[in-house]
Amino acid sequence: MRKLSIILISIGVAFILTSICMLCYNIYCDENAKSKSNEVRNKLEKIIINSEIETKEVSTIKIDDNNYIGVIYIESLDLKLPIMNDWDYKKMQIAPCRYYGAIETNDLVICAHSYKSMFANLKKLSQKDKVIITDVNNNEYVYEVELIEILKPEEVSAMIDSEFDLTLFTCTSDSSNRVTVRLNRI
After folding, report:
1. Which CATH number do you get for residue 81?
2. Is 128 helix (H, G, I), strand (E, B) or coil?
3. Which long-range contacts (CB under 8 A, 24 or more apart) does 35-38 make?
4. Other CB atoms within 10 Å distance of the CB of residue 162
5. 116 falls within a domain
6. Within a domain: residue 124?
7. How far apart are alpha carbons 47 and 146 in whole angstroms?
8. DSSP letter, residue 101
9. What is residue 50's predicted lDDT score, i.e. its pLDDT?
10. Could you read off the pLDDT of 118-130 as tens digits, one per residue?
11. Does pTM surpass 0.90?
C-alpha cells in the first residue's frame, strides 16, 4: 500500500510540474508574440505614416520576410496589431493574419492566436464596439461589431461565407471552438 501511495504521489507531482511547465511556455509564447508584433507594428506604422511606400497603391508591405496589409486597432480591448497578408500557424506567432477575403471585397476574415496580447479577449467585445483597420496606403476603415458567435473548427464555410464585411476569430480557451466576431463597415 505504501509503494502504491508513493507511485500515485509521484505521478501527481509529475502532472503538476508538467502543468507549470506548460503554463510557463504559454506565457513565454504570448510575451514573445507581443514583442514581435509590437516591433513589426512600429515599423509598419512608420512606413505608412511617413509615406515611405514607393508606389501610391500597394497591397502589402514586406517587413522581415513577411507581407503585411495594415494595422488593426480595437480600442475597447486596447489592441493595436499588424495584420499579416497570409496565414499559417508560425506566422500567427507574430501577428494576426488574413485568413480569407479582402477589405475591398467586404469579406475580410482575420485570425489570430488566443494569446492575451492578441485575440484572447475577443469574447469581451460588445455590439457597437468599433474596430479600425488602416491599410498600407493609410486608408482607414471603421467597422462596428454586429454579432459574436461560437463556431466549431470544421465550420470553415460558415466562417468565410457570411454577409459581414469583417470577421475576426480565435480559439476558445480550451481550443475546442472558435470565438467569431462579425462586423460591418460604417
Report:
1. 2.40.260.10
2. coil
3. 36/93, 36/94, 36/95, 37/81, 37/82, 37/94, 37/95, 37/117, 37/118
4. 17
5. yes
6. yes
7. 32
8. -
9. 74
10. 999 999 999 999 9
11. no
